[in-house]
């Protein structure tokens, strides 16, 4: 499945999709913070599931943008 990468400063968000419950899909965002010493990772899940992977990826993209938008550098 496709994945998209977004970067803001030392933060990188990767939006992906995973299959859940048979024919349902969920968007997932992995946020990595790399400040040089060690990398810190956090995984965020879209609250709802979608019927297509494309729709779930759109939800993950929106979540990634929202997460990165809230980060102050």
TrEMBL record:
Residue numbers spanned by region Disordered: 36-55
Domain of life: Bacteria
Protein name according to UniProt: Uncharacterized protein
Organism: Paraburkholderia saeva
Origin organism lineage: Bacteria, Pseudomonadati, Pseudomonadota, Betaproteobacteria, Burkholderiales
